[in-house]
Specification:
Blueprint: H1 9-27, H2 32-36, E1 38-41, E2 44-47, H3 48-72
Antiparallel strand pairs: 1-2
Length: 104
């Protein structure tokens, strides 16, 4: 049995990249007709592109749920896609107002 040890966010990010690279190598060269082919998705047929985006958005949904739990526990929300109200850094492009939408 291995003992638990803490990891830094950069270790987890590196592992995510390591796991994603083989998938990217497979998915990126697929032609349009492969993406548009229907596959079983539970009890219905869906196009692969629909399944891909559904899985991606479902994962993002669970990440968002975790940030809600962190807020409810009065913990810092880590920067997932950029700075948060809790964690910022020099040079970050904060989106703290409606005006930020017009920035490019």
């Amino acid at each position: 049995m291995t003992s638990w040890s803490p990891h830094s966010p950069s270790v987890f990010a590196a592992r995510l990249v390591e796991l994603a690279q083989p998938r990217l190598a497979f998915l990126a060269p697929q032609p349009d007709n492969w993406w548009l082919a229907a596959e079983p998705f539970f009890d219905v047929q869906r196009q692969r592109v629909w399944i891909f985006w559904r899985r991606l958005m479902h994962t993002a949904h669970h990440g968002t749920q975790l940030t809600v739990y962190l807020r409810l526990l009065d913990r810092l929300v880590v920067p997932t896609y950029g700075p948060t109200a809790d964690v910022t850094w020099q040079g970050a492009d904060p989106t703290l107002s409606v005006d930020s939408v017009s920035r490019r």
